[in-house]
Specification:
2 domains; Aspartate Aminotransferase, domain 2; 41% helix; Aspartate Aminotransferase, domain 1; alpha/beta; 13 helices
């Protein structure tokens, strides 16, 4: 991998060579290929479907092509790919189009107390909506181990004949720990559905929905080099007969995915997602992942060596690394680093009970940037 050539493909790095961007878990930078795809659409825009002219045909084909690329990228089929505004909408949609129509009295949903709020709150909201209809379901929370992996023993204890679905995060948005889906599947068997949040893994981990044997997959485009405002909800074909639309609107087609996409979609976002997948596959996702793992290992070792720093992520973290210090608050560190043109995220990251500094590199970051971050953190603490 020629890192200099890779960085040249991103306007941000070309124009800001002295700035260090380490907030990739929140959103990634965008390569020329994605920006050009968006600009091409915006410079000759039209709606899609039912337009009997060449421009409408062109953009309809591009949307269909992006759907095909997403399906192949995750190992699914085109009709299983629903375009949404992002992972938050995808995760909410599961509760609305499946949960609302299929859960009955006594059914149970298993979630993690430490997951992102977008993975937890929709189920709590569904519970309240069903109660108004006279249906009582139970939401159970499973614990995490000290290495931030799901507590597989706790999951085994809480699974029973009433469990309908387990909500999982592939790579944790604060800890960077990766869930062993195969091990989960061995514990829960074939009757319990799996909803997988892949926001923090989709841009660097090869995901095959058929091999993983999952039922729902949610992710956002803006975390994988695409535009904001676009996401995906994969719904396994075996569930399609149990899905009902949540909103009414324009559109003639009566099957999934179209019944879940009424109205005009985010066309520029959809074509940006197709371009982002092209970009990833041109580099090869395996190389991206190997590069990111090396950066994370270096970051973890460096942070662990600093007195007064508590690292919450495990050594095997494949995503974001979170920490706090005894001397300074997370906000104070973030503010200090900003003055040094180093950009990280601070707060509870929609998952934790305390504020931390979250550092999230990607394959286009350099070892020198990691060293510069650690060096400036040490100066701040001293």
């Amino acid at each position: 991998m020629d890192l200099d050539k890779i960085r040249e493909k991103f306007p941000y790095f070309r124009e800001n060579p002295d700035k260090t961007y380490l907030d990739n878990a929140s959103t990634t930078q965008k390569p020329d290929r994605v920006i050009e795809a968006v600009n091409d659409y915006m410079s000759e825009a039209s709606n899609i479907g039912r337009g009997e002219y060449s421009l409408a045909f062109k953009h309809s084909e591009k949307v269909d092509e992006s759907r095909r690329k997403v399906a192949e990228f995750i190992g699914g089929q085109k009709q299983e790919v629903v375009f949404t505004s992002g992972a938050t909408e995808s995760l909410n949609m599961i509760t609305e189009v499946w949960g609302e129509n299929n859960l009955e009295d006594g059914d149970e949903i298993l979630i993690s107390a430490k997951d992102h709020k977008s993975a937890k709150l929709p189920w709590q909201s569904l519970k309240q909506r069903l109660e108004k209809k006279g249906v009582s379901i139970k939401i159970k929370e499973y614990r995490l181990r000290t290495d931030r992996q799901p507590n597989y023993g706790d999951i085994k204890q809480k699974i029973n004949e009433n469990t309908r679905l387990i909500s999982l995060t592939h790579v944790h948005n604060s800890y960077g720990s990766k869930t062993n889906i195969e091990k989960i599947k061995q514990i829960i068997g074939d009757e319990v559905l799996i909803s997988l949040d892949a926001c923090q893994s989709i841009s660097h981990e090869k995901i095959d929905v058929k091999n993983l044997d999952i039922d729902f997959l949610s992710f956002s485009g803006h975390k994988m080099f695409a535009n904001t405002g676009i996401g995906v909800l994969y719904i396994g074909k075996s569930l399609h007969n149990s899905i009902k639309p949540r909103r009414k609107g324009g559109g003639k087609k009566k099957q999934i995915p179209h019944i879940l996409e009424p109205g005009t979609p985010n066309i520029s976002g959809i074509v940006s997602l197709g371009a982002a997948i092209d970009f990833i596959e041109n580099i090869e996702i395996k190389e991206i992942n190997e590069r990111l793992e090396k950066l994370n290992q270096k970051l973890y070792r460096e942070l662990e060596s600093i007195d007064g720093v508590t690292v919450f992520s495990p050594e095997e973290a494949v995503g974001p690394v979170s920490f706090k210090t005894e001397k300074l608050t997370a906000q104070e560190i973030g503010t200090y680093l900003n003055h040094k043109d180093i950009f990280v995220r601070t707060g509870d990251h929609c998952a934790l009970e305390q504020e931390t500094v979250r550092v999230s590199s990607h394959f286009y970051n350099t070892e020198e940037e990691v060293e510069g971050f650690v060096d400036n953190l040490g100066r701040a603490l001293n």
